[in-house]
């Protein structure tokens, strides 16, 4: 009699596990999770699988959105920084000269270097 009880409990667990995996499949979630919940928890596992397993399609869409954002962020970080224009640099030099942070000689030297750099690729 003891063997038949074990067999009935095991077969019942398998059947509950199969129902749990069907519930998980309907939610597009991994079927092994539903099977395990059904096998070990029986009908309560079916209810838990139905309530707690995430919709696999939504989870996949969320993951794809996160990956798209991560690629966009990486692309922005890898983008080369725009070099300031020669006119902007000259305007900064003029402002420094007008604020007396640069002497006339230093201004002329920096201006010459800037224009020489602009001529070379």
UniProtKB/TrEMBL annotation:
Record bears the keyword Membrane: yes
Residue intervals passing through the bilayer: 34-53
Keywords per UniProt: Membrane, Transmembrane, Transmembrane helix
Protein name: Oligomerization/nucleic acid binding protein
Naturally occurring in which organism (per UniProt): Tahibacter harae
């Amino acid at each position: 009699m003891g063997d038949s009880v074990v067999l009935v409990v095991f077969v019942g667990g398998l059947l509950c596990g199969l129902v749990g995996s069907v519930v998980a499949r309907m939610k597009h979630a991994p079927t092994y999770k539903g099977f395990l919940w059904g096998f070990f928890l029986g009908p309560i596992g079916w209810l838990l699988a139905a309530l707690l397993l995430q919709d696999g399609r939504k989870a996949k869409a969320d993951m794809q959105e996160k990956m798209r954002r991560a690629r966009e962020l990486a692309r922005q970080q890898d983008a080369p920084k725009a070099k300031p224009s020669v006119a902007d640099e000259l305007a900064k030099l003029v402002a420094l000269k007008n604020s007396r942070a640069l002497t006339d000689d230093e201004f002329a030297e920096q201006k010459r270097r800037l224009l020489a750099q602009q001529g070379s690729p």
